[in-house]
Design brief:
The chain is of the alpha+beta class and about 160 residues long. The chain contains 2 helices and 5 strands. Helix 1 packs antiparallel against helix 2.
Length: about 160
């Protein structure tokens, strides 16, 4: 087998592993992003009336394991209608059933709503610059491993 083919066969799984690691870091960042209210949305008071639990688990600050939850929130709009929505945030630290929360909603379509970030004090924030550091290290390690394999294969 030619040396270049051996090198290519070794590079493919390394590049795939790096790409999948990169994708997972980006997915984790999007999943942990706190909601931001678009301009013009109105603030309202809401209450968590239910929650949807998931099998995925997360550790709390005290080290105990909790189920990951998505709160279902009810609030009243200015005209008196009660609106219920499910938060897009999935985390162990979301407010529990019965908790009072601040909500931002679109006055034109009150079904479009999100929990105010101030009401999510127990939710872990996104990774910030750490995500870039992790992605850079994933690709740096991939390049180093490929270079080592190239040196071994091409000098053999």
């Amino acid at each position: 087998m030619p040396d270049w083919l051996s090198l290519l066969l070794a590079m493919v799984p390394i590049i795939l592993a790096a790409a999948l690691g990169n994708r997972q870091v980006l997915y984790s960042t999007r999943a942990r992003a706190l909601p931001q209210a678009p301009p013009g949305w109105v603030r309202a008071h809401g209450v968590v009336v239910d929650e949807r639990s998931y099998a995925r688990r997360a550790r709390s600050k005290d080290g105990s394991v909790q189920r990951v939850r998505r709160p279902v929130i009810a609030y009243q709009v200015a005209d008196g209608r009660e609106i219920t929505f499910t938060s897009r945030i999935r985390a162990a630290g979301t407010p529990r059933v019965g908790a009072l929360v601040e909500v931002y909603h679109d006055p034109a379509d009150p079904t479009l709503a999100c929990i105010a970030p101030a009401s999510l004090s127990n939710v872990v924030p996104p990774l910030g610059l750490a995500e870039i550091w992790v992605i850079v290290n994933i690709w740096l390690m991939a390049v180093v491993v490929i270079m080592i394999i190239a040196l071994v294969v091409l000098n053999a």
